[in-house]
Design goal:
Elements: H1 3-26, E1 39-40, E2 47-49, H2 54-67, E3 72-73, E4 78-80, E5 83-90, E6 99-105, E7 108-114
Antiparallel strand pairs: 1-2, 2-7, 3-5, 4-5, 5-6, 6-7
Length: 124
């Protein structure tokens, strides 16, 4: 194998190995990670399709908040029109996120990371 072919092969291998790290870094919205393997939903913005089920996704965030001592409030889970919804609300003013909404619709679990409120205008 020629030196040029070896160099190209090494470059492609490095790019292949580094691609998951770049995708994982992109999944950190407003300083809040999503479960490994989650994908950006077709809606874009800060909505993801979770790689885990509804309960496991909630446990993922509960563990993350506990490990990192993140102050939050969790109103009770509710169902509306066949959709189960859990909300995790930031209670710290210095959080880079305002809320995390985990919801299950037709067997698929979604995660929406909501930006914090703008203190001047009361909007996002």
């Amino acid at each position: 194998m020629s030196t040029l072919r070896r160099l190209v092969a090494v470059a492609l291998a490095c790019a292949w190995l580094l691609a998951p790290a770049a995708a994982a870094a992109d999944d950190d919205r407003y300083g809040l990670p999503v479960p490994p393997g989650s994908q950006v939903s077709e809606r874009g913005d800060s909505t993801f399709v979770s790689s885990r089920g509804f309960r496991d996704t909630l446990r993922y965030y509960q563990r993350h908040f506990r490990r990192h001592a993140i102050a939050h409030r969790a109103p009770p889970v509710y169902r509306a029109r066949g959709v189960a919804v859990a909300r995790l609300l930031a209670t710290s003013g210095d959080a880079r996120w305002g809320a995390v909404h985990v919801y299950r619709h037709r067997g698929t679990t979604f995660i929406a990371v909501i930006p914090p409120l703008d203190p001047e205008h009361g909007s996002r």
